[in-house]
């Protein structure tokens, strides 16, 4: 088969284990999944109702222009509709960005412990991935900017970063934007933005007025609790948005997702509740990890990295047998660590109790 050479080096993404798989493999019934940074509270009731109503029109194709959804997003964000593009999760948008910007041997720059899909998507296009070592578990913004050269097409800032949960601070981002050449794209991936409580977190929308080379990516998968629906969006200048809209397929958002997105933006109370609960959960983890003497990374997202000081694959497998699914750090080149999602308080407690038992050898 005449498979493109570039594709041969691309490996399938290893997603968090689904509950159904663990049930099947281990014969367990009572399982909690804290592996994929999903919202443990589900979605807003108002969104659920909007989705149920939308089912009545499911025989129709969705509006290929996403008119109502873009209008709702534009009002919400205070930007023009012509600056918004939508897709089946920000994952699709990452791939589309790479298909627009990356030719063979072009380079992207990312943190060495950051979201793997930037790497995969660049490789699919035959691009080269330049990974800059993290500094104290944070993206080394200066190092990333210094690595820019003539072949660089995209610099990826995941903020909060997955899996470390750390942010790029306002002064760092502004410095980066002032020092990255104007023809290099800077993608600011804000998948976990809603969870941030740090006051140094930049409001990036106004930056679109000053910098022409930025794309902001956001998603309904995390705080809005709609991961299974697949809806993400991006904001950029009109030229980039036009190219995005030319490459994104006409039906790369679905009819139910369009209605859900509109309803989700209106339910501010739900979002507030989720953000408060998440903050409580993060603090609970910190307190318990301190008690257990475990090192962890303070997170601005809905997950925390914790250093078990043991073989993470072993701890991961023992947790699975106790019905708790997390993500082993080895997957992210952080052996010994686990990435655990902030669940409901009951789920967080169950994780801590199970981890404590395993560390005691039980
Ligand atoms: C940093 C980051 N960006 C993007 C995504 C993709 O999210 P989705 O495709 O569900 O919008 C994720 C998912 O985990 C993520 O962690």
From TrEMBL:
Modified residues annotated as N6-(pyridoxal phosphate)lysine in this record: 222
EC number: 2.6.1.9
Gene behind the chain: hisC
SUPFAM superfamilies assigned: PLP-dependent transferases (SSF53383)
The Aminotransferase class I/classII large domain, residue ranges: 30-355
Enzyme class: transferase
PANTHER family recorded: HISTIDINOL-PHOSPHATE AMINOTRANSFERASE, HISTIDINOL-PHOSPHATE AMINOTRANSFERASE 2
Keywords from the UniProt entry: Amino-acid biosynthesis, Aminotransferase, Histidine biosynthesis, Pyridoxal phosphate, Transferase
Matching PROSITE patterns: AA_TRANSFER_CLASS_2
Protein name: Histidinol-phosphate aminotransferase
Transmembrane segments annotated in the record for this chain: none
Top-level taxonomic group: Bacteria
Cofactor(s) of this protein: pyridoxal 5'-phosphate
Quaternary structure, from the entry: Homodimer.
Organism encoding this protein: Thermobrachium celere DSM 8682
GO MF term list: histidinol-phosphate transaminase activity; pyridoxal phosphate binding
CDD domains: AAT_like (cd00609)
